[in-house]
Write a structure and sequence with these properties.
α7 runs antiparallel to α8. It is built from eight helices and nine strands. The protein is globular and about 55 Å long. The chain is α/β, with parallel strands linked by helices. Strands 1-4-3-2-5-6 form a six-stranded parallel β-sheet, sandwiched between helices. Helix content is 37%, strand content 20%. It folds into two domains: 172 residues, HUPs (Rossmann fold, 3-Layer(aba) Sandwich); 90 residues, 2-Layer Sandwich (Pantoate--beta-alanine Ligase, Chain: A,domain 2), CATH 3.30.1300.10. Bound molecules: adenosine-5'-triphosphate, pantoate (PAF) and beta-alanine (BAL). The site of beta-alanine (BAL) has 3 residues, from loops.
């Protein structure tokens, strides 16, 4: 496994692989890898001859009051995980490598970025789209792997690939959870033991929502109300949103049907957690 930090070095490796006719699977991450990332890497490993993982805490997608400075990192540990999972190349650039002083181009999307997390994280998806576009251009993947835990991000990346006719297949990977249900996330490391207990309300509320839909609830307003009421049983939970939206356009809808995304964002202490489920059939 190679670890490189410059765009030039990645491009040289990718050029050679392409000349040899290899397919490339790409997993973009911000590092501090866990089994959620592991499942993306495993899926990439199974379907492609070469696997590239990027580890880059992208400053452009963090707001001024967000956790860019405290975001966890451990390249040595991440490298071992990647090596064990059969990754061929880690790309670990510096912010200066990705954004030199004469960097002036951004990828902006409307509509999908204006809902859910976009309401409170201004500029976040501009940063995500810009960096993912740049990473795709650098790594030239046949397939790129994204987690359903970040459902809005996944929908936005699919839209970007479609709108801009990008030659990459976006593969969705199911949310990997802790044994008690909490979605795995690098930010779970911020949770104190007490907050970790309280955080369970998030996945619990997702399970409740799924059960209500299975039992026949088709009214989005009622579903949201029931989920909010459940979240409020945990005094440490501060609700940012509970929303029912179309899974592709991310616009709010009133009647639940297959293809709908039910998404929540909740703050537990200083930790912001997201979770969701998709309605596959009624
Ligand atoms: N629990 C999970 N299951 C499946 N995929 C996941 C999970 N957690 C993260 N991913 C995916 O891994 C990719 C990289 O995500 P990232 O490095 O931001 O990890 P994260 O744990 O989501 O971090 P954060 O705590 O910042 O949300 C994204 O496509 C994300 O959706
Ligand atoms: C896709 C991504 C690596 C872009 O920085 C990031 O948003 C993430 O880790 O989900
Ligand atoms: N996993 C999503 C990246 C972010 O929250 O910045």
């Amino acid at each position: 496994m190679q670890i490189v930090s410059t765009i030039k070095d990645v491009k040289a490796v990718v050029k050679k692989w392409k000349e040899e006719g290899h397919t490339i699977g790409f997993v973009p991450t911000m590092g501090f890898l866990h089994e959620g990332h592991g499942s993306l890497i495993t899926a990439a490993r199974e379907a492609n001859e070469k696997v590239v993982v990027s580890i880059f805490v992208n400053p452009m997608q963090f707001g001024p009051n967000e956790d860019f400075d405290s975001y966890p990192h451990d390249l040595e540990r991440d490298s071992k995980i990647c090596e064990n999972l059969g990754v061929d190349l880690i790309f670990h650039p510096t912010p200066e490598e990705m954004y030199p002083q004469d960097f002036f181009t951004y990828v902006d999307m409307s509509v999908l970025t204006e809902e859910l997390c976009g309401l409170n994280r201004e500029g976040h998806f501009r940063g995500v789209c810009t960096v993912v576009n740049k990473l795709f251009n650098i790594t030239q993947p046949d397939r790129a792997y994204f987690g359903e835990k970040d459902a809005q991000q996944l929908a936005i990346i699919k839209q970007m690939v479609k709108d801009l006719c990008m030659n990459v297949e976006v593969i969705d990977c199911p949310t990997v959870r802790e044994e008690d249900g909490l979605a795995k996330s690098s930010r779970n490391t911020y949770l104190s033991p007490e907050d970790r207990g309280a955080a369970l309300i998030v996945s619990d509320t997702i399970s409740l929502g799924e059960s209500l839909v299975k039992e026949g609830e088709t009214n989005a307003e009622k579903l949201i109300a029931a989920m909010e009421t459940h979240l409020k049983t945990e005094p440490k939970a501060k609700i940012e949103y509970v929303k029912v939206v179309d899974g592709e356009t991310l616009q709010p809808i009133s009647t639940i049907r297959p293809g709908v995304l039910v998404a929540i964002a909740v703050h537990i202490g200083k930790t912001r957690l997201i979770d969701n489920f998709s309605v596959r059939k009624l």
